[in-house]
Amino acid sequence: MAGAAIGLRGVTKRFATPNGGIYTALHDLDMEVAPGEFCAVVGPTGCGKSTTLALISGLERASAGEVAVMGKPVDGIPEGIGYVFQTDAVFPWKTVLENVAAGPRYRGTPGGDARARARDWISRVGLAGFEDRYPHQLSGGMRKRVGLAQSLINGPRILLMDEPFSALDVQTRTLMENELLQLWSSTSASVVFVTHDLEEAIALADRVLLLTAGPGTIKGTFEVDLPRPRNVAEIRFQPRFAQIYEAIWNQLRDEVLVSYERQKHATAV
Amino acid sequence: MSVRSTRPPSSVSTEGGVPPFSSADVRRLDGAPGPRPGPPPQAGEENRLDADLMARRSSMARRRRFTIYGLRLVFTVIWLGSWEVSTRLNWVDPFFVGQPSGVVARLWTWITDGTALGPLWLQAAVTMEEAVLGFIIGSVLGVVFGIVLGRIEVLAEVLSPFIRAANAIPRVVLGSLFAIMFGLSVWGKAATAVVLVFFVVFFNAFQGVREVDRNLIANARILGADNRRLTTEIIIPSALSWILASLHISFGLAIVGAVVGELFGATAGLGQLIYNAGHTFDVNGVFAGMFLLAVLALIAEGIISALENRLTKWRPSRVSGEIPI
Hints:
Order of helices and strands of chain A: EEEHEEEHHHEHEHEEHH
CATH class of the largest domain in chain B: Mainly Alpha
CATH class of one domain in chain A: Alpha Beta
Number of helices of chain B: 12
Mean pLDDT of chain B: 82
Low-confidence stretches of chain A: none
Low-confidence stretches of chain B: 9-41
Strand order of the largest sheet of chain A: 6-7-8-3-9-10
Largest sheet of chain B: none
CATH architecture of one domain in chain A: 3-Layer(aba) Sandwich
Number of strands of chain A: 10
Number of strands of chain B: 0
Number of domains of chain B: 2
CATH architecture of the largest domain in chain B: Orthogonal Bundle
Distance between the termini of chain A: 45 Å
Radius of gyration of chain A: 19 Å
Structural class of chain B: mainly alpha
CATH superfamily of the largest domain in chain B: MetI-like
Strand content of chain A: 15-25%
Oligomer: heterodimer
CATH topology of the largest domain in chain B: MetI-like fold
Number of helices of chain A: 8
Helix content of chain A: 25-40%
Shape of chain A: globular
CATH topology of one domain in chain A: Rossmann fold
Structural class of chain A: alpha/beta
């Protein structure tokens, strides 16, 4: 499809392991994300979910197959990509303001303009008044907001999120999910949201991609036809949510079991 | 003397989750009033209890500080007292081990009448000049080489056996070589200090560059940082904790370098003063010189600590349980 924001065709990714073996993270993976689509990727541990993001962002290269962003093959980091990392990736020696202003500055915006735009984004993620704090003075949720503002300030057309809220407590997490949806609705960005939490995936996404236990490949695609705007905290009580959850879980369960058996085997050996 | 890298005193948790101590906790542990957690004060009763708790905490911290200083004083009195008494009673011969009162007397004559080499302040200034020059040049070279080799893997692989060999040899012997090259000037001693300082700082800077969080680099690259920005804004600040940790040790080494350099030929300096005292069997003079070196080293250490605190104000403050040794 020519109009896709992200297209992966027959993608395989192999890594050389430290003890000389080859580990296949992804095998013959096909996926497409439309412009403006919110796409969640779920799968058992170690199925190559994060690898998919690394390939799209150009941080890693595919061993075989094609990866294209905005119709162009990925070679280096593509234009218009934002990435929110699983662990904290904000710069601890920069204040909140300097952290958020980093992207525009790196892209050639003069310091004053960059800081003005950063202030705007800091208040949009609800951190006004914290501009001069250092990351260690903030809570985990606040650091995530800094990370989010740091990415969104560059106006990404594609936002990659790698289990961004997995380290947060449940209440903060729900809060952040709602804010993410709100921020996203004011952009036209495509989102690829990697998570191991099926509930989170359904609550946020237009479409859920299910990966098989590693080497990962697409096991199924599920449309989430729940109305927007959504309230993440309440949408879980809708009967339709439960139906979708059940449909995906029936398939995910097998993969989780495969992955679990494999891990047990690996630790036994 | 073989040197490995030293770990920075406190590493920053860049992993996810909540840090073990918030800045508020740390400040309150230190005894100073920190921001009060929880809801804004409403009941006067609660307010009073909080104030009580705060006052008790700070008075406890104060008492603890007094106890520590008191015990230090006791330690000094016992140490110097037993030394003085045992030499007075001739249990040990003061000719060989010196005598605290003799050391003080020697210091006093040096201050009032000057030393055999000239005024005392001049000797201290000469040694400090040598040490500071060696320290600055050695640190700058160490940082530059550490960062360049840390960034360019091929270069590190090519040079690694040479660096390890150079680190393994006792470099103080180079002092004699430098004495030939630079004569009696300051530069011979500074050069000896440089070769001692360089390796400590180099290994730490190198290690610091290698240990930069991969996530931070990935993030900076996604945000659009080019190689120069990556080095100046991510790699160097990240390695700074490691580099600063090495500066504490390396100033001591710079003084060692300066004093050893004076051994190979000098006309002034505290090292030369100590050798002179040694050659004239003036044990008190040796101790007096050592005492002066220790004072200068402590002052320099204080300056480096202040610099470190300034440069790393983004780091969580030091946990009060840590003992500054």
